[in-house]
Write a structure and sequence with these properties.
Length: 563
Amino acid sequence: MSANKRPSSNESKGGLFSGRGRLSVRFRNLSILLFIIAFSITAAVMNFAFDRLVSNVSSEDAGRYAVSIAEAFSAYLGRQISLMSKAAHSSAVTGWLADEYDEEKKALAFEEMSGIVGELYSFNLYVTLESSMNEYSVGSDSSAEYVNALNIDRVTDAWYFNCIESDHDYIMNIDLDYFLQRKRVWLDYKVVKDGEILGVLSTGLEFSHIAGELFAHNDDNVRCLIIGNNGFIQMDSALMSDNEFLYSYYEVPFEEEFPDAAFHDAIESYLNGVDGYFEEIGKLDVIKLSSSPFRHLTITPIKDTAWSVVILSGRSTLFDDSYFIPVSITVLVVLIAYAIVASAVNYRLIFRPLGKLSQSLVSLKESQDERIFGLEREDELGFLSNTIQDLFHKANFDALTGIYNRRFMESSLVHIMDLLSRSNDYLSVMMLDVDHFKKYNDTYGHDQGDQCLKSVAGSLAGCVTRASDFTARYGGEEFVAVLPSTDESGARMLADQLLESVRSLNIPHSKNTAAPCVTVSIGVTSGKISVARRWEDYMKRADEALYMSKKNGRNQYTYLDYI
């Protein structure tokens, strides 16, 4: 730790409290300017938006319509799912599926299922057994007949294997009934007992009936779709009069039907969030489209399915909600931008400089050669930095000699003792005294005495050059050298150098009994640091050695081991 020079004050730079230099003035002006800009943009956008919104009708109808379709579909399917679950968990059904050729169990199962068929919207129930892959058809009059044996390689039988492999109790899809040659909404329900899959129950709901009920209130300004989580259109209100759509296999991806890029992005973003079956009807998503005749898109999920209702609405049927979306986004963006910019300004003008100042002060505590941040600035922070630098210098440096003072020495020794005690390392301490300094003052005057002390301090600092070592003025003509991680041999070597360095100054001293020039007496001690030892003990031992040097004729050093 070498002695630092006293820093120059920032007061000499001028303009410290000028308008341009004041941090508070710049911060106030920039904050006002940013607020005016943000307020002006927000007011202009809001005025434009409200003018547009007045000319449109409410969008709530489209939302209610989408939710009503989703609720109707959920209610329609919910009863069917409940009945299929009842059949799948029936002991009669599971008993027969586990023992297909037991005629008594078969009769009980058919009787159980025929009662359920009577409550279904469908007219029959298909049963496929996992053990034999045989498929049966059960009617509401307890009639039953063997249909065929399923084959994994047959495309028309894929529904069964898809259901078996599903993670859900049931799956839903729209497909043809190949026996009746009609499109149906199929509900396939797994029959499981004790963790073992016994088979699948399947019922087909009349597609045209469901679609007709759902889309009964459509007009030319509204188009309703039901899409699956694979992005394919399952139902389309625009095709309700198309026999090919109603009575044959029809499946088309939404991007082929609608060229609008916003539509694609909205559907794809929505489908990316679909994972399994919806547990409830969620919040509506409303998106503005650019293509005609439809201007808005509303999406909502259908409970207990992986399907969703998509409503395409013309401008005449709903409030043009999309005009409010950019307003909200713009206001939000402006406010966020204002907050970000204001925060950035605050950070740049205040917090970052204060942070650097704080870091430099922390570093200064560890290394006394560290330069405080902001000394060259011309604002309040610069004034603060220079004030701290001045106070630090006054608190830690001797005003006369420019080397460290006693306060710094004592606080540093506490830190050094703590640091060296972890490694049980050596500490050496020297106490130095200018020989017959009172006589020197009496002979040459106090001004010369001050110059003598400065020269001696400079000579000592020139010898103590390691980064970890330092010298300090202890008081009056006494000085201290602190040498961490230095043993006896190192301390003795430095003591010889210090004696010779002071003698080489050749400062005349006619009253010195030890030599015709200014000399010093030194007391040296060394010892390993331990938790039980205190720095005061090292100072006391060095002082004892100094006393012996004086007693033995001065202009020498005396070494005493630390006891």
